[in-house]
Amino acid sequence: MESGYIEELIQDEDYTPFPTMHNTERPDSVAAGLLEGRIAILVEGTPFVLMVPALFIQFFQAAEDYYQRADISTLIRLMRYMAFFLALLTPSAYIALTTFHQEMLPFALLISIAAQREGVPFPAIIEAFIMEITFEILPEAGVRLPRAVGSAISIVGALVLGEAAVQAGLVSPAMVIFVSITAISNFVSPVYDMAIAVRMLCFILAVIYGGYLGIEVIARTAEIFLPWIIVPFLLLIVLNIPQMKIDRLYPFFEFRMNDLVLGTTYFLGSPFMELVFVLMITPHIKDGKKVKRMFVMGTVASGLTITIAVAACILALGANIASMHSYPVYLLGKMISLGATIQHIEVLVAIIWMISIFFKVVIVFYAIQLSIVQLCNLRVRNFLSFPLGLIITGVAYYIIPNTAYFNYFEKYYWPFYLFVLSVCFPLLFIALSYIKKNKATKGDRSQQT
């Protein structure tokens, strides 16, 4: 039992990205909290202690503040508040100023930024997304690599990649500076949970802005990041080939064919039925024939990818172990170890998951925007982006308050909801369209007679 499970069960407010309980492993912090009248919850087997109640300002206070003079500690805490707002708003403020409100910039600064962006082929949002993903991956890779290599990767890697991106013309120097400020400000928070909340909010804002820009920008950005998914996936499969054994398929064939068909339909139906959101976008694309061909090709390619991933998990882990884990592909990454130099290759799985989830959420958000515009007969959809994003975020936290309920909802409710949305509704609409056409044809014939 870990204290995180208890935190999810007893917290007062589930529908918020911010932490509502303070957890620490420092005895002096626990003693200080008890002296202030807080309650400490200790769980056997874990070093983390929960402190309740917790205030928002408490997540910007460190134990070292009490070892300094009052004026110095106050100044440091004010700097942490400023770093919090910098980490949350710096990329969005830069994008807003350079894209929509250039008149607010001094003329000399505007000319300098325009000269830097002259050879950059992407809009500011794609620049920010590229650099944000890069700066999020580097610390995770640095933590999981060997100690001698990890610190060099996180520091030197950021400098080398930033300089290389500028020299290649992928991003502007100003964007590297602002994203670096964001990444550094995010690490100023003494509580890791608060830094994670800021990252989540930045991700949500990026999704909202992606839906605001439209399907063309989403598709162009997906083309850029497609190799970032294909290459790590191929490396994950190739590096696990030595662990794969054909003998692990034998228990798999002991099941009855009916059970295999039912289980395959149940679990593969979820990702393929979600393609109905892509079909909601296709009527708004000009080249309809090309869209249909690419849709079929993408469906087949994704089906082969899922089949290869499932087969690799069974061959490398066995059917029993693969079925017991929620994310067996992540376990495949943990099994890879190339000597003492390259370890913790599961970061490749994290890269694939992060990029694919982002584009999936953006496409669904854009499809919801289009459906509301059609339903309400609106002329434009851009003004819906921000309020709709806030509403969907709040509803998501209300429907799925924690991970345990998410697993329960995904297993028992989500497949049937998708079946109604992707099968029943389209069949109903096709039938209504057929009836409407028949009535129109009969009306034309009656008028002619």
What does this protein look like?
- The protein is mainly α.
- Helices cover 71% and strands 2% of the residues.
- The termini are far apart.
- It contains 18 helices and three strands.
- Strand 2 and strand 3 form a beta hairpin.
Element order: H for helix, E for strand: HEHEEHHHHHHHHHHHHHHHH
Helix content: over 70%
Strands side by side in the biggest sheet: 1-3-2
The counted number of beta strands is 3
* Separate helix tally: 18
Give the overall form: globular
From the alpha carbons, calculate the radius of gyration and give it in angstroms.
26 Å
Average of pLDDT:
76
**What is the chains' assembly state?**
single chain
The largest β sheet comes out as: 3 strands, antiparallel
* Beta-strand fraction estimate: under 5%
Terminal CA distance reads: 80 Å
Query: What structural class should be given to the helix and strand makeup?
Result: mainly alpha
Poorly predicted tracts of residues: none
How are the secondary structure elements laid out?
Elements: H1 3-10, E1 22-24, H2 27-35, E2 39-41, E3 49-52, H3 70-99, H4 107-116, H5 124-144, H6 147-168, H7 173-186, H8 192-213, H9 215-239, H10 257-273, H11 276-279, H12 288-317, H13 319-324, H14 328-335, H15 346-376, H16 385-399, H17 403-412, H18 414-448
Antiparallel strand pairs: 1-3, 2-3
Write out key terms for the chains shown.
3-stranded antiparallel sheet; 449 residues; mainly alpha; single chain; 2% strand
